[in-house]
Amino acid sequence: MNKKIIIGILVVIAFGIGGVKIWTYSSGGNATEKQVATNSSNRESSNNDRDTNKEESSQSNNSESNKSNNSLSSNLSQDEDTENTNDGVFNNKDNKNENSSSNNASNTSINTPYNVSVTGMRISKIGGFSGTFVEDGSNKKVNNILALEVKNTSKKDLQYGEIKLKVNGKETAVFKLTNLPAGKTATVIELTGSVPYNSGDNYKYEDATYAAVEKLPMSSKKVKVSTEGSDITIKNISGKDLGTVYVYYKNTKGSSYLGGITYRAKFEDVKKDKSYTANTSHFSKSNSEIVMVDTEN
Known about the structure:
The protein is mainly β. The chain has a domain at 64-207. 7% of the residues lie in helices and 45% in strands.
């Protein structure tokens, strides 16, 4: 039985069939609402970067070497474990905000920690990232690129977040993150991987976009998920055919996620009571965490 398994990288969040409300906040604090209606067809087109097993297999040989060629300094994560000491260098200036009441004022230079309006996102640190650039899946090597440590302080899970900062009053740096559970933190690298970090630069909040849900779905009554090494295995326990099943995961560094990016394993034509295994390029049982499982049916 030859089943097609597709591994995709999630750069733009896959919303539910009914759509989701996106809220945008400017530096002035005004919110605008935008209803995004999505369905399975446009979710497919927006989130699949790879569409063959061959391409996935060829990349999987390099996944472990990509993970081992970086190192993460202790200023980002004080409780990092020994298995995860090589995930990129993050050097930061940790400016304490002495006047929290003016923290979110329009045109105010950022001092960390900085609460991003009412989005639930908090910028804990601003710094420079050196290592493998993960945000676009290219895994190119970068040095001292602007990065943020962002925490979801909300009680809701963040499906999508975007933060824009003005650097020295000139260029705009964009940071995107997906599928950040409540209370979790991610090191988010500037989206293009081209804006350098300088300790003397001035960073001003421009605007932010976010979408949140009470809880990211895990579909535990439909699908049983197990992992081994870089393999993700699902078993259909729903008693019916599920169509397409998506398993979303993020790579970790100590108590933080590395990058705003979420990776996705896609299983097609999932029949009842059957098991399916995907060998991934980016998943590691010791360094990754499954954050969402979604099904077509």
